[in-house]
Write a structure and sequence with these properties.
about 220 residues, alpha/beta, Undecaprenyl pyrophosphate synthetase, 7 helices, globular
Length: about 220
């Protein structure tokens, strides 16, 4: 059976779920946060050490300002109310992406990372204002600036996921079959699962079904 160290998730479908069931995209984002909490618990139960969640992409700035503000307020409230609990659960929080938010949110993100930096049970990588293309360009710039040899080893150490194993599994909910500029380098050999359910409807049973399926897959990595 295949071991699982790292699961990455594109949490797609919050807005559509909200419009369908609550006539509000923001209601979908709020419901999606409950799903996040369920999946964190299930990840710990499965003894998976890394969970990367695509929360806000570099392209998401195109959304209405009111929706963006709601998303960030939701995140601020979650961290204010839950960071102590995450710390007690031995969960580490790491932000990947560029911290170009309000002063209060930036301060809270830095505080949350610092508070949980020594925790070992689970590392949650929260992708905020993240875009893989920008990450790759910046990695090349760093190599050139440092006058390093361009090879896979040197390139990898300049990514924001330095010291994090590549995802074994990539899950995208929302019945959309694309990668949306997410971890393009890191998922070269990830097993990809496209899930029809919208993110707020995704549950522990769905998650464990994917995990069980992954464990049965024969992974050759280019071999036979």
């Amino acid at each position: 059976m295949n071991p699982i160290n790292h699961v990455a998730i594109i949490m797609d479908g919050n807005g559509r779920w909200g419009m369908k069931y609550k006539n509000s995209r923001n209601a979908g984002h709020k419901a999606g946060l409950k799903t996040v909490e369920k999946i964190i618990k299930e990840t710990i139960k499965n003894n998976i050490k890394f969970l990367t969640l695509y929360a806000f992409s570099t392209e998401n700035w195109k959304r209405p300002k009111k929706e963006i503000n709601y998303l960030f307020n939701l995140l601020e409230n979650f961290l204010i109310n839950r960071i102590d609990e995450l710390d007690k659960q031995n969960i580490k929080l790491k932000i990947i992406g560029n911290k170009q938010f309000s002063k209060s949110l930036n301060k809270l993100l830095i505080y949350s990372e610092k508070k949980t930096k020594n925790n070992k049970k689970l590392q949650i990588n929260l992708a905020l204002n993240y875009g893989s293309k920008i990450e790759l360009v910046n990695a090349f710039k760093s190599i050139i600036k440092n006058k390093e040899v361009i090879n896979i080893k040197n390139f990898t150490k300049h990514l924001q996921t330095k010291n994090i194993p590549d995802p074994d599994i990539l899950i995208r909910t929302g019945d959309t079959n694309r990668l949306s500029n997410f971890l393009l380098w890191q998922i070269a050999y990830s097993e990809i699962f496209f899930e029809k359910k919208l993110w707020p409807a995704f549950n522990e049973k769905d998650y464990n079904k994917i995990i069980k399926k992954f464990k049965r897959i024969k992974r050759n990595f280019g071999g036979i």
